[in-house]
Automatic annotation (TrEMBL):
It comes from the Bacteria. InterPro entries: Isoprenoid_synthase_dom_sf, MIB_synthase, Terpene_cyclase-like_2. Its EC number is 4.2.3.-. This is Terpene synthase. The keyword Lyase applies. It comes from Streptomyces exfoliatus. Keywords: Lyase, Magnesium, Metal-binding. It is an enzyme of class 4 (lyase).
Length: 381
């Protein structure tokens, strides 16, 4: 019979050696967000339970999500302090006039919400540095701060060598090494990856490099459409978003949690489906919450509501509401796939990893909903 306060999945796993407290369970995190972590199929109704603590921001009406309580403020403050010091002092990531925007990103709150089982602040910092570095590449190479589709492939290739080092001749190695200091995104990638490699196993680092290559491929597809003024079909857009998405973030959930999902288990097609669906659902959350922000920016910015409205000949409101439905379908598919895999492969590290990914999905929504500095909802209701 399950112990009080634990989900059936948690109580089915043994306590870790040296931990007599039944609340410390090898099978996954406890506390923040774990009320939404059952891997059993979810009910069809999108009505979520009330969160344990009030949060800022209005959730999107009709969106299927699971509320989480406020992240630990002590951890949030410490991660926020350390990441700003890293960005300013170690990698000189942004000029003084970007400070307000950096603070408004609230990355400390984001990462603490997404990784409640991180055993230390330094484990949280591994994820936080990578998140900030990825955002810098997106902004400076692709979008808000001087980004352009023109020449993007060359810039991304050189940035990727900060993650996946170049192995060349002695004559040319110094020039490549110097290039990693050439601009802020490359400095950030190199530094964040150096920290990650020290915390991760070789298999985890290789997994992350693979997912970052996927991300960069997605950037290039979106850039190509921008250069040719092409509005993709909805299915084409969703294909691009499977690559240009948040997948590199939940894929490191075991590294941040201080354990390893073995490579053969991570590579299973069923696990790859879970990760793809998690990345797809969380990225559509970004499309929905950033909709008004993107409409206010120069040029035409592709997101799922815009593509649906144009390709299916419906109003902006109808396109947005249809995108909410797409998100909800992806979320339910993700949860069903995770439940199926948990039943088929009830290995403790698999169960813990699945639960960590589910927490990341919930934490990602929490950050988007509560980040009123960056996001506001359209007037469609």
């Amino acid at each position: 019979m399950p112990e009080p306060g634990l989900s059936p999945l948690q109580s089915s796993l043994p306590a870790a050696a040296g931990h007599s407290d039944p609340g410390w369970i090898l099978g996954g995190p406890s506390g923040l967000g774990t009320t939404s972590l059952s891997l059993a199929p979810r009910p069809e109704t999108p009505e979520p339970p009330a969160p344990e603590a009030p949060v800022e921001g209005r959730p999107i009406p009709g969106l299927y999500f699971h509320p989480v309580p406020e992240p630990d403020p002590v951890r949030v403050d410490e991660v926020s302090r350390r990441i700003k010091s890293w960005a300013l002092d170690e990698v000189q990531l942004y000029p003084d006039d970007w400070e307000g925007e950096f603070d408004g990103f609230s990355v400390g709150r984001y990462m603490v919400a997404c990784h409640p089982d991180a055993p230390s602040i330094e484990h949280l910092m591994v994820a936080t540095r990578l998140m900030v570095a990825e955002n810098a590449v997106d902004d400076c190479y692709c979008e808000d701060h001087g980004g352009s589709p023109i020449g993007l492939g060359g810039r991304l290739l050189l940035a990727h060598t900060a993650l996946d080092p170049l192995h060349t001749t002695g004559e040319y190695q110094p020039a490549w090494a110097e290039s990693l200091r050439a601009d802020a995104p490359r400095r950030a990638y190199r530094s964040a990856m150096d920290y990650f490699v020290r915390q991760s196993t070789p298999s985890q680092a290789d997994r992350f490099r693979h997912d970052m290559a996927r991300l960069h491929l997605g950037y290039l597809a979106e850039a190509a459409w921008s250069e040719t003024d092409h509005v993709p079909e909805v299915w084409e857009y969703l294909a691009m978003r499977q690559f240009n998405n948040f997948r590199p973030c939940p894929t490191i959930t075991d590294t941040v949690g201080g354990y390893e999902l073995p490579a053969d288990l991570h590579a299973r097609p069923a696990m790859q489906r879970v990760l793809a669906l998690a990345g797809n659902a969380t990225t559509i959350v970004n499309d929905l919450y950033s909709y008004t922000k993107e409409l206010a920016s120069p040029g035409k910015h592709l997101n799922l509501p815009v593509v649906i409205a144009e390709r299916e000949g419906v109003s902006d409101k109808e396109g947005y509401l249809k995108a909410v439905e797409v998100h909800n379908d992806l979320m339910r598919d993700f949860e069903a796939a995770a439940a199926d895999l948990a039943a088929a492969c009830p290995v403790p590290t698999v169960l813990r990893f699945l639960r960590g990914v589910a927490v990341w999905v919930d934490g990602n929504h929490y950050w988007h909903q509560t980040n009123t500095y960056r996001y506001s909802l359209p007037d469609f209701w």
